[in-house]
Amino acid sequence: xxxxxxxxxLLAVFYGCYFSKLLRQRRQGVRTDQMGRGKTGFARxxxxxxxxxxxxxxxxxxxxxxxxxxxxxxxLRAAGAVLAAAGTAxxxxxxxxxxxxxxxxxxPDEDTALVTGGIYRCSRNPAFLGFDLLYLGILLLFFSWPxxxxxxxxxxxxxxxxxxxxxPHLQAAFGADYLAYQARVGRYCGPRLHGWxxxxxxxxxxxxxxxxxxxxxxxxxxxxxHDFGSVWGHFLEEEEHSIDVLFYGSSMVxxxxxxxxxxxxxxLSAYVMAGPEQTIxxxxxxxRETLRTQSPQAVCIELTGMFFPRYTNYTKTNVDQMPWGLxxxxxxxxxxxxxxxxxxxxxxxFYHDRWAELTxxxxxxxLLGYEPDPLAxxxxxxxxxxxxxxxxxxxxxxxxxxxxxxxxxxxxxxxLCRERGIQPVYYxxxxxxxxxxxxxxxxxxxxxxxxxxxxxxxxxxxxxxAADGARDYHDRLHYNAAGAEKFSAFLGRWLRxxxxxxxxxxxxAALWQARLDHFAALASQPMQAQAxx
Length: 533
Hints:
Elements: H1 2-27, H2 41-67, H3 74-98, H4 126-141, H5 145-174, H6 176-184, H7 195-221, H8 232-235, E1 245-248, H9 251-254, H10 259-266, E2 270-272, H11 280-290, E3 298-302, H12 315-320, H13 326-335, H14 338-345, H15 348-351, H16 360-368, E4 383-384, E5 392-393, H17 400-420, E6 423-428, E7 433-434, H18 437-448, E8 454-457, H19 462-465, H20 481-498, H21 509-523, E9 528-529
Parallel strand pairs: 1-2, 1-3, 3-6, 4-9, 5-7, 6-8
């Protein structure tokens, strides 16, 4: 919210300078807006394009500011705030420095002075520099690919206006005086570059252009994730600080916990940020990253991950869907297999040959981004397998070194929750194939001994869940949608009765009702029978 207020304030000051100057000059009989007037050919096309883009871009900026979502790490967003403020200050100084010579566009029929003092000692085009800095700052604060494209096109139009329209006009109007000024002061900032400095600047621009191109290719080629966990693209579309309860764990979470049903039972907003075979250390990085944009009252962590090996079959999926930042880098170097690290740092290594697999969804999502998930991280399973509900023990191999790593990660998770005032809930998902009691019971006792912890073994509540072995199971580890609805209703009742959680004011009830309606519509379709594997 602070960044939204700051950004809207900077836009108001920036364009307030522009329009107040325009109105003042209009009262003096000066026509400030000369864009496209008296021009022909390429110069007219440039100015008309610039005028259109300079209207569209601030409108798009306001839209993305009000939307309030950004996938970029906090350091980049802070840098964006500094750049936007700097751009506003530079623009204001440029408007003041030009005085009555200020024009939007050039007019060959009017006499104006060549201004080389004030901020114009440092830049020949500080107003355009101010626009660019503001656009870049807002982009970093509220990044989206459409806004990047629009800002880049507008910056290009500004540049063409300078080199194709304004500089030729100034050379013709002021002759040697302007040429001397041009030789002395850089087009955008600082003294004009010559020799190796010019080449170094060109090299830097080329490197940045290549990096941007690779980023766009990566965004297009990386597989889009809509279900079965690790749905970071959808999660980042949630309004900041709008989630009351976050869930972490493996497929036993994202196939069983229906946030819309929890909302129906409790009024609490919830989101499932589980991942396939999500280990406890991976859960730690997921939690840290989600807490950048959300401030839940409780986090619920499924404990089966304590028994997973250090490296599972889905490390790549769990990491490469994370937003870029320190948590992703830490997960890459601490929790990913060494053979995967290069590809996690440079995803085109993994996905450069996906061209033949691209779909319309890849292009649409790469360009427009993800929509908010109508199931809030839950994966809808519409098949049933008639299942013998007799519990059985799973085979596990306990690696003491890995167990110690997992426990240390759980302790860090617990400390983070306590530090943030979040209620930690450690639970065991209901399943017919279970971790043996001689392994699970000591873990539950250890977790319950942590200060402020709440432990729930859902396997002790099968009668209350009331799942039907004939129709409610997808397999012996997961419910289908019918079973998940029953389990989520039980879980909602348990949360309401055992935790002091109160739905925060201002939650988007229409969004959650739409999610509940969407789940109900899916659940109303006939279940598909399938044979047990």
